[in-house]
């Protein structure tokens, strides 16, 4: 983003080009929002917001397909909340798509409902066919797993339907949507204690569809499950729910396992949940609610449906995708805006996403994505400075691979928090180094990423550190530069939820200027939750900025601005304070 030379002497690097994209999936049981930041030069995208709100559009009764007034009210409120978030982040309207699936597709009052949404919120909803839903889900799966060159069967169990698609190299060989959903099956069978009848119904629907013949003809290489219910099933198996051994510490002991489960493991889980279902008055069902949360009411139907699918389609093992319909919608949007967008690009980057998703919950993933966004802003500012000033090329010359390493380390820096905060940066290092998760990265690259994660806090990475002995001199210097960026980014994201568009790093003959803005539009209601005490900001950031000066070899002036509404915090690292006369100023 170019700046007016009459206003500032700094050459600014920020997010003037808005590469934020969003998708809203209007499902039967819940509405989901995805907001990503895309990099048009690499094809990578990073999820900044991933939110879900329970709506439950279907309210029981096999022949009742109308969306009730109460469900419509819940839907409007959910979409209004999503719309506020999208507006606060300035996502361009052309970068947004809303897709509706089974419940709205099958509803008898579809047109009235869509008109209400449009009149109330001004939103246009695309009601996709079952085949289109399956196709978009396959595109989403391709962004998570490096399976582009394999014949893949993708299965997505939703609240009102289940989508099946067979794909190869981005092309659809076969796709179908069957009216078998965990919500509708629960309402029709499970709540009437008729699971045997449900199994017979599932078998009849699948056999009549022609799905079995198509799957057996195509010689499937990999079966992938992509829905939230399948991810929850995998989590229950992985954490030992079937054996009453649920704990997250087990993740560290089994970190070599990578998003998959077998038919036998699924059978054991089905037996466990059905046993619990027969003991409704006991405490086990209460434990189920604690583990499966909002999915607890529908999980029995989901596991039985999936078990029947495994048997009918002769599936022995299933891989699980962290991406699904929403990411498929976004991938297609990116293809519209970026020429040459490649569905198979950055296969190794997907292994970073899988590992981060494996150990982080949604809150920690959002925090890690925020760290990566801030780091990218700082990186680009440094890169521009080093490219413009020939003398600085002797200090550091950063390239696209360095940015990839930095973003990877940001996404993985907090995975060690799975077992607690104390020493988590060391656990993050060991998981990255010992898990064989990062496919496509060589040994040196894996260690580089692990070291950045290890040294994002506590002890700074010194030039003579033993871990650097095997790296050449130039890479050692790059490592230390990247280390200063991740440390500064991790410190900044502690104080406020930031996205890439909020960060600017610029340089002139006067020095560096780091500006961090809050785009929420208003200060916190209590006046204190968003911005910590100025002294806390100073202690944390001054230390990291001093490291920055040491590594970059620039004894320059730094300014830190944090804006929330009309508030601004500014402090100096050097000797001179440059006041911004356009806003109130508090010197730390």
From TrEMBL:
<feature type="domain" description="Ppx/GppA phosphatase N-terminal">
    <location>
        <begin position="42"/>
        <end position="335"/>
    </location>
</feature>
<protein>
    <recommendedName>
        <fullName>Exopolyphosphatase</fullName>
    </recommendedName>
</protein>
<dbReference type="InterPro" id="IPR043129">
    <property type="entry name" value="ATPase_NBD"/>
</dbReference>
<dbReference type="InterPro" id="IPR048950">
    <property type="entry name" value="Ppx_GppA_C"/>
</dbReference>
<dbReference type="InterPro" id="IPR050273">
    <property type="entry name" value="GppA/Ppx_hydrolase"/>
</dbReference>
<dbReference type="GO" id="GO:0016462">
    <property type="term" value="F:pyrophosphatase activity"/>
</dbReference>
<dbReference type="Pfam" id="PF21447">
    <property type="entry name" value="Ppx-GppA_III"/>
</dbReference>
<feature type="domain" description="Ppx/GppA phosphatase C-terminal">
    <location>
        <begin position="348"/>
        <end position="506"/>
    </location>
</feature>
<dbReference type="InterPro" id="IPR003695">
    <property type="entry name" value="Ppx_GppA_N"/>
</dbReference>
<dbReference type="Pfam" id="PF02541">
    <property type="entry name" value="Ppx-GppA"/>
</dbReference>
